Amino acid sequence: MKKKLLIILALFVSVLATSQDLSKIRSQYPEAVKSDEVSSKLDKELSNINSSSTPVLLAYKGSILTLKAKFAKDRKIKKEFFKEGVSLLESAVKANPQNIEIRYIRLSVQENAPKILKYNKDIEADKGFILKNYETTSSKELKGIIKEFALKSEAFSDLEKLELL
What we know:
Low-confidence stretches: 4-20
Oligomer: single chain
Order of helices and strands: HHHHHHHH
Radius of gyration: 17 Å
């Protein structure tokens, strides 16, 4: 009986810690796009994330790797970071295509990726998914982050931005 209680307690603590980490990551992600320092900090925090992690955390890890590519100096390293980041991000989308947060993360990466990389084929699909599912998103924190992103985004028209207000 004690053993079962300890296992349940450990799982509860693990879930609680993950949700707190996710909240911290969510709030820092928009700043990481603008700052090498913040993106490096998030990269360290996400260093233990791998393909067996939750898809949302995998998506954030992938997006941070694409930011490392943005801030890297060496062309070869830029390419390696970007390819790895996109691979992780696409794995997250494949694992949970109905997750609005993952679709927001991918949209943010695609919108900011240099056009020459041709990583922009899902912008319209992700934007449409966000617009369709925004109202039913239960997390106020996530809704606020998505709304803030969309209002600054070039992918959303003025009319679409009004839908999110």
